[in-house]
Amino acid sequence: MTAESFAALLEESLGERDSLEGTVVEGTVVSVSNDMVLIDVGLKSEGRVALKEFAPAAGEPANVNVGDTVEVYVERMEDKNGESVLSRDKAKREEAWTALEVQFNNNERVQGVIFGRVKGGFTVDLNGAVAFLPGSQVDIRPVRDITPLMGNAQPFQILKMDRTRGNIVVSRRAVLEESRAEQHAELMKNLKEGETLEGVVKNITDYGAFVDLGGVDGLLHVTDISWRRINHPSEALTIGETVKVQVIRFNAETQRISLGMKQLEADPWEGVDAKYPLNGRFKGAVTNITDYGAFVELESGIEGLVHVSEMSWTKKNVHPGKIVSTSQEVEVMVLDVDASKRRISLGIKQCMDNPWDTFLDKYPVGSEVEGEIKNITEFGLFIGLTDDIDGMVHMSDLSWDQSAEDALAGYNKGDVVKAKVLDVDTDKERISLGIKQLAGDPFEDALGDIKRGDVVTCTVVKVTEAGIEVEAGEGAPGFIRKADLSRDRGEQRPDRFAEGEKVDAKVTAVDKSSRKLTLSIKAHESDVEKEAMANFGSSDSGASLGDILGKALKEKSGE
Q: CA–CA separation, 445 vs 523, rounded Å?
């Protein structure tokens, strides 16, 4: 062979090498054995390709037979063994890149499968080409677990691709946002108040939950979740949960949607008056305790308030939490129902015996009781009568003879005393007691039958500038004022009387509160004058007043 012909063959061979290496060519399957496929692509020698590269997908069996025409990528014309180096995977990748470039230029969506994790995101198989999916482009909102999305064919949007570097960046989020915008427009166009929809709980706040209706969010306020009391939406809902809701309000201008769940259920307040009549007794569970009372759930959606004043007959000024506890089952009585305001007033103490009534049945007014002095105040004593109730002895009911202050000073806390029941006021929950009433009233005893208008003989006890103190009857104290000592103004002198002297006087008042009689000698003399004038004549008969009185007094003394 001449040098010229060798040079021509070498140039031909090099030209062929330059034209085929790095390209995709068609070849014929010559044989399939073990894990290799022998392919003839028209070069000096056949090439071998791993059988697994002909599998439609990872893990699936290869689909290739002798005689099949397949496309392969020529990496080198021949290796050290003289065989062509071919690749089916790279051929598919080149095909995919070509198709992807067209779709990218046309802004079309592509189908892909998420198959792996890498730093900052995930890898996606785009029919042979591997793309990068950033973590922020997976979904519209953060996804905690991407496992359900892996291995499933789904659409993606190509954000960027560089064939020379082999880089493709895709986004699933862009596809979802586009779909969401379409759904949003369609939903807003056809949305009506009162319509029932299905949505997914997207977010939960203190005041409610946001529900994704498919392209648009609506607010489900905490008060519209259930007829029963809910303190926080998380008690009834969880993020990701699918719920049925009703459109309560819809503002087309602001595109705000208010949703409700309880509206899809029957209103438990309908006919509440018939279900819970006044004075009816029912059982319920304590759901919430406040400073002013406790809420009791009678049924799902219906709660009533037991005011602190209706919780116990005897425990006053006590926090409701010390009487009942949350979740405790209690018996209550219906005190009032206001269906329009959705309010029911309940009472717990009404389902128990009223200790005031029980006490009155056992100890009617006038009964004698015994108890320990629980407290002493400036106005009296408090005596423990039962485990729950006390009675009060006012300072004025301690002694007949001593002053109230002196009598009160004679008692100590813890003393056991006897007393008489003076009054029981079950409405005001008060029991009035008296200690001095255990003994007879010395004033009443001394008074006897003396009454206002009677003339009595008194004994002077003390002479004062204002008048004289006397005792009448069996020792009833009395007082005659200076002006009442005589009809004659000149005789109205207290000093003309002496202690122990007897005088006749008329009872003008019986003051049982001050325990004294008010008497008048003047009034007695006036009565005698009138009687004398009536019985012995008048000044017209020629007799003087002195003669008439003298005669009347002589007759009186004769009697």
A: 26
